[in-house]
Amino acid sequence: MKQTKGELMSFNNFLSTSENRQVSLTFAREGASKNSNMVGILFIMTIDPAICFKSSIPYVDVSKDGYFKDNEAEILFTTHTIFRIDRIIQIQDNHTDRLWEVKLTLVGNDNHELNTLTAHLREELGRETGWSRLGYILIQVGESPKAEQLYQILLEKASSDENRAEYSHQLGQVYNDMGEYSKALSSYEISLEILKIALPPNHPDLASSYNGIGIVYSHMGEYSKALSSYVRSLEIRKIALPPNHPDFAQSYGNIGIVYKNMGEYSKALSSYEISLEILKIALPPNHPGLAGSYNNIGSVYKNMGEYSKALSSHERSL
């Protein structure tokens, strides 16, 4: 968190807060005291009611219903309320040396960084429709078994080659996430064969299939086959897509992974750096994809023994 001052953060659950500093400090102190591997954090939040009203951010005063009644002065905020991290300082405390104060400011829906990131996420989700959108969400939240059940049902009921190819492709991703690589490879190859018949030879969907096959081969340790699939995917994308399309970043990033696993670190670094430059253009500045790219570059520098550069890249990732 100390590396992200000035950035945005949110809480993925309902947020119970108190206007009584001592109540919150007590909870933070107890958390730090019970476990030597943890720190206690006292969040100090600046809330502008006008922003809550303008951005439709629900909150409610539950002080009369809280455990400590009026002494707690509890305010409850909705899930995923977003704040900016303003300042982080250590609290001098007689009970523990693992107590910190983090000052946050509520961010409204008119925040430029938030709107940029939200628009990008909506664009990603907008590629899927109907039941496929539900399957996509299940994959993203780690519910692969449920996604598998859904796509199997959709595949059985599919009435067109387009749908059969799509659902087979998604099953490939699901099986890959579950570590069932033989099933993943079979599903991706079924999708690819359908698409080869139904689509022009340089259609971007073919590139996605080759990319999926490459991912599976990479996980299986068959790096030569993985590299061949990734290169074929990249060749199609160079013909089918405009320059600096984010899919190029995926291709170069995956090629970098293979080269790294093969011990060809200079080639891996070059691929990762190309991927990063594309992501800088294609993604908002706070997108986690950038963090992953910096982390990949740092791991290569580490393997090359250039520890100062590795540390710099990993810190940028944070």
TrEMBL record:
GO terms for cellular component: kinesin complex; microtubule. It is found in: Cytoplasm, Cytoskeleton. Gene3D superfamilies: Tetratricopeptide repeat domain (1.25.40.10), Toxin ADP-ribosyltransferase, Chain A, domain 1 (3.90.176.10). Keywords: Cytoplasm, Cytoskeleton, Microtubule, Motor protein, Repeat, TPR repeat. TPR repeats lie at residues 165-198, 207-240, 249-282. InterPro entries: TPR-like_helical_dom_sf, TPR_rpt. PANTHER family: AAA+ ATPASE DOMAIN-CONTAINING PROTEIN, TETRATRICOPEPTIDE REPEAT PROTEIN (AFU_ORTHOLOGUE AFUA_6G03870). Kinesin is a microtubule-associated force-producing protein that play a role in organelle transport. Oligomeric complex composed of two heavy chains and two light chains. Belongs to the kinesin light chain family. This is Kinesin light chain.
